[in-house]
């Protein structure tokens, strides 16, 4: 079953409940405004398949209309994040597709990243162990990344004879870690260690493996308890301003901030400050 964006307000309940009941290729739950999405094939290091790509795309599109989800955590079951496209379920079949079929596939995988960047909720990736190929792109498409010292992140597309420009890598990675460092990883396909990832700014912090998921959820919970309308505006501006000059960006931010000044959360924050209390944000 699929719904058009214009139908969202007519749905019974909310989109999070819809996504929860439909999730088939990963675990998905919502608590305290935080949705946790867990890639759940630990015996294979949580690879992606044609079906899981499509489901991720639809889920992130649906989350744009989930009014009970304020922040998202994406993680992998077991001791790995994601090993990328499944060799048997994806790579093998791709060698037999014609060009239109190949392009349909690569556009679908790119649509996952587009949906992650377009959904208003901040996304926190919890990265342990292997984070490779398309898995590295799921991490990169997130807003923040927490990792472990033992993690290994690899944009290994060139290792299988492909270009290092998959799913928006050449646009996103240089903006996170810089052009030279991104070029090295995308040309060589080598693994980036956890310490290196933190030093280069790919990880916001490095955690002990047993504390990783809790730290990611705590970060997401803090965001979910904050002014979530304003967070959505921040994410929108971070995305849109890539294509703006400075003058256009300043004007866009003036408009965005004026909109946020009309929210109830802004007024709550003011009255709480005057009363020397902590504001209770409600996202409106």
Strand content: 5-15%
Biggest pleated-sheet summary? 6 strands, mixed
Mean pLDDT: 90
- Determine Rg (CA atoms, Å): 19 Å
Can you tell me the CATH superfamily of the largest domain?
Answer: 2-enoyl-CoA Hydratase, Chain A, domain 1
Assigned CATH class of the largest domain: Alpha Beta
Q: How many individual domains?
A: 2
The best one-word shape is: globular
Number of helices: 12
Q: Give the beta-strand count.
A: 9
CATH architecture descriptor text of the largest domain: Alpha-Beta Complex
Distance between the termini: 29 Å
> What structural class is derived from the secondary structure elements?
alpha/beta
Question: Could you name the CATH topology of the largest domain?
Answer: 2-enoyl-CoA Hydratase, Chain A, domain 1
